[in-house]
Amino acid sequence: MEKPSEKILIVDDESSIRKIISFQLERSGYETISASNGREGVEAARRNSPDLILLDLMMPEMDGHQVVEALKADYLTSQIPIIILTAKFAKSDRMAGLSAGVNDYLTKPFELAELLVRIRNVLDWSKKQRSANPLTGLPGNVTIEEQLEKVIRTGEQFSVVYVDLDNFKAYNDYYGYNQGDKAIRELARILIDGKKQIGCGDEFVGHIGGDDFLYIAPPAIADAIGHWVIDEFAKMRTNLIRPDDLRKGHIEVRGRTGEITRYPLLSVTLAIVSNEDCEIDHVAKVGDLASEVKVFGKSIPGSVLVKDRRIEKSEPAIATGEETESAS
User: Fold this and answer.
1) Which domain holds residue 261?
2) 148 and 108 in one domain?
């Protein structure tokens, strides 16, 4: 089992507590930095960018509340999670700290096992927060790679489905960035709804960036979610495209030099890669296979669900309200 390698800053004016916590955390695989008062703690945080701060509340020069205020006011340290270690259990102190952005409290004396669990929980939460896409709130690339590595390690059958919008740049230029963001959020909502409606609870949905998403599911469920996405996207698309453009079946975008270019309407391509009949032993192979399938899928007009043609023929993917074709 791999040990954690995160860096933790311990800020406490009692030398014995610093040494005990530092010793135990290093035994558990963490890197530690120590500071003996609040002012040193703020400087150490700015200088070392720790992954987590364990902060005593009652200290000379700067108490814990003042340290939190200084850290949250500085862009470089404002996102570092903080666990307060304190002998004070007053509700007013807890409320003040939580309101200022403290992530957790632990009252002295505490059990080492509880401290380690709280540290792991806060670090995991922080990692997910940093990875999450700000537009959709879905997990980003760090978590996506972890999930891919996880399903590859299990050796069980899985499908990875790459999802992205076709002709999105032209749509964004024509309708504006706000409408483009709305299209991305709506696609995210459809993917999440598909997971809830069809999945069994273990499926994963992530946002790679821009208009690119993926989801991971058992092969049969992945296919079913894919058809759901195409059908729901066709229904939702009427809220994203003006009626006159829907009637024309295209949009006309004026370029920088004044030329008019005609583009197809917004659609969605889903590219499936699976380890059903093809060995996938590392994350890079997933991306390589998906790139080939996506190129093929985007050569087909309309919304489409395509699979790696080395695996099997794709089933028809017919979406209500727009012309699509099946791919194989």
Assistant:
1) 141-307
2) no
3-class SS at 82? Answer: strand
Same domain, 207 and 91: no
- DSSP notation for 50-75: -SEEEEESS-SSS-HHHHHHHHHHST
Rounded to whole angstroms, how far apart are CA atoms 218 and 272?
Answer: 11
Indicate whether 37 and 176 sit together in one domain.
no
Within 13 Å of residue 39, how many CA atoms lie on the same side as its CB? 3
Kindly state whether residue 320 falls inside one of the protein's structural domains. Answer: no
Distances (CA, A) of 185 to 165, 188, 218, 233, 236: 12, 5, 25, 12, 11
Local mean pLDDT, 10-residue blocks, the chain (328 residues): 75 94 94 95 93 92 90 85 80 60 86 93 88 88 93 94 96 95 96 92 93 96 96 95 96 88 96 90 92 91 86 40 41
Domain count, the chain: 2
Q: Is residue 321 part of a domain?
A: no
Query: Are the C-beta atoms of 105 and 94 separated by less than 8 Å?
Result: yes
